[in-house]
Known about the structure:
Elements (H helix, E strand, L loop, with lengths): L9 H19 L5 E8 L2 E8 L5 H12 L3 E8 L8
Parallel strand pairs: 2-3
Antiparallel strand pairs: 1-2
Amino acid sequence: MIEKVNPSHPDKLADRIAGAIVDLAYRKNDRPKIAVEVLIGYELCTIIIQSSERFEFEEVDEVVARIAGKQRVHLISEPQDIHLSQN
């Protein structure tokens, strides 16, 4: 079975937002450690980032607005787990 979804489907938007945040990490550092989860729906975008890089709310909010339009953004950004960073 093949799943085909509209490009504006929330799953596709979430994937694009996560990819753009990873790209942002690579602009900050050529070898970042990063994990990103994005949940979007009901005009709310929840983003959880665990990374070696710091992210300001404004730069993440801009990524979301560019890709998904006006959304309320709930951002949780934490340093990369020490054990995961060694992988």
